Amino acid sequence: MSITPHDERFMAAAIRLSRWHLGRTATNPSVGCLIVKDGVIVGRALTALGGRPHAETQALAEAGVLARGATAYVTLEPCSHHGKTPPCAEALIAYGVARVVISVTDPDPRVSGRGIARLREADIEVDAGVLEAEGRQSLAAYLTRQTKNRPYVTLKLAVSADGMIGRQGAGQVAITGPEARAQVQALRAETDAILVGIGTAIADDPLLTVRSPGLESQSPIRIVLDPSLALPLTSRLVGTAREVPVIVVASEEGSLSQAEEDIASTEMDSRRAALEAAGVEVVHCNPYHPEVLLPALATRGISSLLVEGGAKTARLFLEAGLVDRIQFYQAPVVIGEGGIESPLDATDIPSGFAHTGTLMFGGDRLDEYERGL
């Protein structure tokens, strides 16, 4: 059966639905599923909070007997393996669905192509690749962790009219307006973890939580690159570590200078003990080698990472070629003397990034750039 505009319309709705739980389904992808019969949606669901139950089983349960002979629109290939829950492909078969339309095939070797094959073996018609580009974008974090063994990395920069991201010695400086800041809060809410360097953590004393009303519980894990464990115990990050997790990434033994090695067995141990007593997790993994750090974060189930500051940290990830998306805010404010220069401007976006859109938030402009998955 050829793909119709109705198929694209229902798949677009399934993709929109899938985005509701981004960053909230643990290591499982946030998948959307619609059950449609005679042009009417009779069941809809997305992956539940925490990752289970899956979208298909919930949507089928909602549709009930109306699922027989219906079409299922699923943003990711239905699973075919027995894990903590039965295979979704088997559930689709059991409910008597006549056709399954899929946006993205699953790269997980336990699933890839097997879900589709199992459905076809049961004489269910399957069409895959519908709105695939849009589907891959909504599943970017999951796909990156599966295929590259690391989180999907978004770099967010807010740059003044004179090319600055802050002012020396001034702590946090508001560059964008309230509308743009609200958008950043929404981005944090759909991200697994947020990362800053120790310079930003000390200078700005940020919370890095989600503060939008109703979204506070969706604050991401907070990560600080802190080779010598200099994060102050009086910082807001440490003070809230028992409410929202904080991971401090310290240098590995053997990666420090001789002078640093001399204090490692005493002062470093004391700093680590104090941070851990406050609820901070200390991880030893060279903080300035993201090609090592990112796979380590992936093993913890972190699929998406937001890099927010500062200039050195942004440059570190850019130079390593480990940024997948850039959110570049340009604001009309002028920082002036003492400004901290942005590591990037709109005229020197690295090669390999495609401009995917421009949005205005009050007087601030957001340009988004992405690499292909």
Structure write-up:
The two termini are 28 Å apart. The longest helix is centred in the C-terminal third of the chain and has 20 residues, at 258-277. The strands form 3 sheets. A 9-stranded mixed sheet has the order 11-10-9-8-12-6-13-16-15, sandwiched between helices. A 5-stranded mixed sheet has the order 2-1-3-4-5, sandwiched between helices. Strands 7-14 form a two-stranded antiparallel ribbon. Helix 9 links the parallel strand 9 (221-225) and strand 10 (246-250). The mean pLDDT is 93. Helix 3 packs parallel to helix 4 (114-121). It is built from 12 helices and 16 strands. With 373 residues, it is α/β, with parallel strands linked by helices. It is 31% helix and 24% strand.
Order of H and E elements? HEEHEHEHEHHEEHEHEHEHEHEHEEEE
Q: Note the beta-strand portion.
A: 15-25%
Widest β-sheet, arrangement of strands? 11-10-9-8-12-6-13-16-15
Given helix and strand content, the structural type is alpha/beta
How many angstroms does the end-to-end distance come to? 28 Å
Largest sheet: 9 strands, mixed
Radius of gyration (CA) equals 23 Å
What is the general shape?
A: globular
Secondary structure: helix percent: 25-40%
Average pLDDT score: 93
Number of helices: 12
Number of strands: 16
Low-pLDDT stretches: none
